[in-house]
Amino acid sequence: MNKIATVVFGALMITFSHAQTPDWPAIKSHIEPYVNNKSEYGTPIIQPHHNTGWEDGMFISRDGLHMYAFYIPADLLSFNYFLLLNPVCPPISAYIRGPLLGVDTITNQWGCSSILQSDIIYTSRQDTSSPFLSWQPSNLAHSGEWEGAPQAIYKPDGSIDIFVYTMSNSNSGDNELYWIRNTSNNPTWPGVLMPAPVNETTFFEDNPHIERIDDTTLVLMLDNHTSAGPLANIYYTISYDDGFTWQQKSLLSSVNTPYEDIQPHMWFDGSNWWLYFASTDTSDAYNRSSIFRMKQMEAGDFNSWGGRELVIGPGMVTDSSGFVLGVGEPTLTAWGDISFVVAVMAMGTTDTTDVFEIDPWYLPRLNPISSIISEAENSTNLIIYPNPSNLSAKIFLNKQMNEAKLYVYNTLGQLLQTYSMNNTNEFITIGNEFPPGVYFVVAVGDNIIIGQEKMILLK
């Protein structure tokens, strides 16, 4: 995205001579990202809690109830161009945009009167039918450092197993990975520096994604996204002792190309692992960043990924009031909805402090959770009431069946419990045996899937 921004930004400065501030709400209302497979995905929407700050490094939890982001209350790209010409204590006030959200623009070790830095911000919602609340400062915010790239593994009870994020080193400029274990949503600073060779002084660790494969095996993917271009690649490392020791980082050779490959995200559909990531789309006229995915070909081999498939492309601003620079930062809910970001540039403006914007977007999946569950018939065959539930829920089958089985999965796609139903007038009550969280109930009869439904237990 940076390469395209540089070229177009330069042209912009030459072409326009009358100052004009972008109408961001109007520009954003005309953005249409490209969806490659419209039979699998619905219509992408901009998240209603977006603002005019720099919302990047997005992560949505598997249950769809929590979201984190890297945040700077400014037009970061425009400021970076200004910084190149004014490298010593550049004034920032003209570039500030959106709410500060607690970001400290004063504290720094260089004696500057003001400074731009990033913090991690956080939002949540009660259920997935409601919009996210407005962004708020997270408990990870820390003056004088750049925090970003948040991601978490969740336990079945909704607490966090591992939370990982990046933080810059003010002295060296190096980016390193930190983690917090056995914590709650919106964890509190400070984290613990992850051990070598996860972190190395010669490597700019960025955009981590960690997954638990079993009680002792962890897989970590990350990139070295110091700048846009062909040197930005995806790496992976594995721990077989629950994170105490790690293998040397290795290039993800089955994925990386001579172009930019970044922002890896692993997702399990109930049967297979998939890798979603951002990469240069060489079929795009501007070689913009798009979101791709690849399916794991050999179980247990996390450098065995199949053919590359385009998922989301940049698309366009339909009234030409802006230009979409690219899309990226894919993360998925358990049922396969995609959270991502769209970066756009305003056209027709000479306000050089307010040219670029990046916001959170959401792409719903039409056939949720897994390749098995997606074969189900209309989910009205399965009725869960009440849903969400504070204690337990009754499950009914609205289909003539002699016998049926109900399978309950967690958000990792793991089978937790199996129940039998003997006739269509029967209902069963479940919920007390499970901790609060999001679950998926699948009904099978006559060897076919007859219904599916998400069940939310609040307690």
Portion of residues in beta strands equals 35-45%
Find the CATH topology of the largest domain. Answer: Tachylectin-2, Chain A
In round numbers, the mean pLDDT is 87
Query: In one word, what is the shape?
Result: globular
Radius of gyration from the alpha-carbon trace, in angstroms = 23 Å
Task: Enumerate the strands of the largest sheet in spatial order, edge to edge or round the barrel.
Answer: 1-18-17-16-15
Proportion of helical residues: under 10%
Biggest sheet architecture: 5 strands, antiparallel
Number of strands: 28
Compute the number of structural domains: 2
What is the CATH architecture descriptor of the largest domain? 5 Propeller
State the end-to-end CA separation. Answer: 44 Å
CATH class of the largest domain: Mainly Beta
Total number of helical segments? 3
* Unreliable spans: 1-18, 370-378
Q: Output the structural class.
A: mainly beta
